Give the backbone structure.
Amino acid sequence: MPAYWIARSRINDPVAYKRYTDLVPGIIARHGGKVLARGGKYQIMEGPEKFQRFVIIEFPTLEAGVACFQSEEYDAAARHRRENGAGEVETVMLEAGEFTK
């Protein structure tokens, strides 16, 4: 069953954050992921307006998405945004569930 990596982020240092975003697409692809939405126009319908970037990535399974997020290569890439406060991110891995069948 497919699963979705859903992330909301706030970019505090665009240069350092770009070092992270330049590395991530290849890592995602190596784990079987496909980016469905990244950046782009959005409208907050409800909730805090803290975040300014949204990402949705599809993986073949929940386990594949979790393995990608927990991989050493993703962790190394994420250090570019985690260190020195380059960006704040909330990430959820969500299995598609019964409604999609």
Observations:
- The radius of gyration is 14 Å.
- The chain is about 35% helix and 30% strand.
